[in-house]
Amino acid sequence: LLIGTSIGSSASIIPLAISAIPFVAKLFENSLMEVEHGKIETTLSLGASHLEVIKMMLLESLPSLVNNITITLISLIGYSAMAGALGAGGLGDLAIRIGYQSYRGDVLFYAVVVIIVLVQIIQSTGDYVVKRLRKHKY
C-alpha cells in the first residue's frame, strides 16, 4: 500500500528494506564495538570532541563496515531471488516461471549462474576493498 501495489517488484522493495535495517544495524554495531576501548579513551584524553571520537571509531572500523556492507548486499541478492520466486519479478521469477515451470532447464541454469556470478563479483570487490583498507591502516 505504501507504493500503490501489493504485488510485483515494486511491492517487494519495502519488505526487503525493512528486513535489512535491523540486520545492517546489528552488523554496524558489532563493527563499532570492535574498536578498542583504549583508543577511545586516548582520543578523549587528547581533548577530542565527541564528533571526533565518532570519526575515529568509523575510521578504525571501516574495513569491518565494508565487509558488513558486502554481507548485506549478498543477503539482499538472496532475499530478492526468493522474492522473485514468489512473484516479485527479477531473476528468481525468471528461474521459477520460465526455467522451472516451463521445463526450460537452460533458463533455470543460466539464471542461477547469473545470481552466483553477481554474488562472486560483489564478494570479490568487497574483499579487495577490505584488503586495501587494512593495508592503508597500518
State the share of residues found in helices, binned by percent: over 70%
Second-tier CATH architecture: Orthogonal Bundle
What is the tally of helical segments? Answer: 6
Number of domains: 1
CATH superfamily: MetI-like
Q: Return Rg in Å.
A: 20 Å
Low-confidence residue ranges: none
Please provide the count of β strands. Answer: 0
Report the structural category.
mainly alpha
Q: Into which percentage range does the β-strand content fall?
A: under 5%
Please provide the ordered H/E string of secondary-structure elements.
Answer: HHHHHH
Can you walk through the features of this model?
With 138 residues, this protein is mainly alpha-helical. The protein has one domain: MetI-like (MetI-like fold, Orthogonal Bundle). 84% of the residues lie in helices and 0% in strands. The protein is built from six helices and no strands. It has helices at 9-33, 37-45, 50-60, 62-88, 90-100, 105-137. Helix 5 packs antiparallel against helix 6 (105-137). 14% of the residues are buried.
